[in-house]
From TrEMBL:
PANTHER family: ABM DOMAIN-CONTAINING PROTEIN, BLL5343 PROTEIN. This is Antibiotic biosynthesis monooxygenase family protein. Pfam families: ABM (PF03992). GO terms for molecular function: monooxygenase activity. The keyword NADP does not apply. Residues 33-83 form the ABM domain.
């Protein structure tokens, strides 16, 4: 997962997940990679962008509909990751769902 996601013409939806991690990995890296792979196989998935420094991580996933986002939230493997996130991996996090109505891209 690198670079800027190539998304279709709006409208579509963005799920913005911002987090602060606990110390240590405890399987986080493997699960994060697995979630990106699994999400990319879900109906309605359009792309993902992610960045993390020592204190803050931000992952933005793009979806074609609110229904697709709901289906991803309810995915059984994703639910396992959500539970581990709350009990082991995150000090705190926020999740925001936004409708993208306009976008612009620049590439040199």
């Amino acid at each position: 997962m690198s670079g800027i996601a190539k998304t279709p013409e709006p409208p579509y939806y963005a799920v913005i997940f911002s987090s602060q991690r606990t110390e240590g990995d405890r399987g986080y890296g493997i699960m994060a990679d697995k979630m990106v792979e699994l999400a990319s196989q879900q109906k309605g998935f359009l792309g993902v962008e992610s960045a993390r420094d020592k204190g803050l991580g931000i992952t933005v996933s793009y979806w074609d509909s609110l229904e697709s986002i709901k289906d991803w939230k309810e995915n059984s493997v994703h639910k396992v990751a959500q539970d581990k996130g709350k009990t082991e991996w995150y000090k705190k996090f926020s999740l925001r769902v936004c409708k993208v109505e306009r976008h612009n891209f620049f590439e040199m």
